[in-house]
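It is time I had a proper look at our fold encoding. Can you supply me with one protein entry, sequence and fold together? It will help me judge whether the discrete encoding reads sensibly. Leave the record below and I will have a look:
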Amino acid sequence: MRMPRTTTPTIAEALASLAVRECRTAMRALADAKRRHRGVHEARKAIRRLKSLLTLAAEPFAGSLPSIEATLGRLATGLSPLRDAYVAVNMARTVAGLAPSPEWQHAIEALEHRSEGRLAAALAKDPRFLKRRRELSDLAGVIDALPWQEVDRDTVEQAIARSERRVAKAHKRASRNPSPVNLHRWRRRVRRLRMQLDSWRKALKTTGKSSHHQAHQSKAAAHAMSKLSDALGAKQDLRALRTALRSLREPQAVAPLLDQIRLELRKHRKIG
């Protein structure tokens, strides 16, 4: 970032530092050889946070953002099958409870085998995830060189207001038609807004400034967004588990498990 450093960072400097830090967080996560699955999960979260943060400066970064988002999207998409397989295992364990039935135990073992197989295949193509880590390192340099000096309070708060309108629109659509597609869109927009609020709050804290957008920047608002995002995410993960069980091609064995998932999904009907 080509700006002079001051004793107290400016808003632009604080946001730039957060963005570069997310790149490095993703790199460290992918380097975690002891907890590969957790590393993949944490890397994907860092990538999402970074994309959300950069969207706060969509206008100043208009020339560079599409290319950066394409790179981040490709990295996230490449990690998605690994994350999805691991989440299916964890969700199966959650639904099965502390004393899984024989049917659940068999399904969990099959899902674990699939998850480990996908991870092994990915590491065979990209040993130690070195290629991905180099891409993130290069990207950190690109992000640091963006015109952060053009980002100010109005830029950020206008971006947050746009995100709020998008959340409201998605909520309205999901309320009229709670299809998986509409609920997923709502969840993604809620999650992006939550992450933007969190990044903005961190930047303001670093700079010692307060927000003119207090109603939107309060911790209570961010907490509400987080709870809603988690609830929608749990519903999505249940549906993903249902799909994963069906893909095992053992209809008789998984039938009672699908019935249990159906009951769990009913508990989430009133979300939103």
Q: What stands out?
A: The chain has one domain: 11-266.
